[in-house]
Design a protein that fits this description.
3 helices; single chain; about 75% helix; about 90 residues
């Protein structure tokens, strides 16, 4: 029984030690993406005050819109609609 508890504790400790850096790396990546989005929106004259409220899916939608083939006017209307969900 003691060996089982010790093995479980060791496994839990190792799992936490291995996943903590991955979570930190994902948070850093999200911060980098959010920062780039802030710069892009700011340069385009779009509001940036709701960026922290955007979901990852909305950030991806904005990124895809910016890199899509639509005209600039259509891109800006789409992005403004996404941002308006949080205002």
């Amino acid at each position: 029984m003691k060996n089982t508890i010790a093995a479980f504790a060791t496994t839990a400790t190792l799992a936490l030690a291995l996943t903590a850096p991955a979570a930190s790396a994902m948070e850093q990546e999200l911060n980098m993406i959010t920062g780039a989005l802030f710069n892009t929106l700011s340069n385009a004259g779009l509001p940036t005050d709701v960026i922290q409220e955007l979901s990852l899916a909305e950030i991806a939608e904005i990124h895809l819109t910016l890199n899509g083939g639509d005209g600039e006017g259509e891109k800006m209307r789409t992005i403004e609609a996404i941002l308006a969900r949080h205002q």
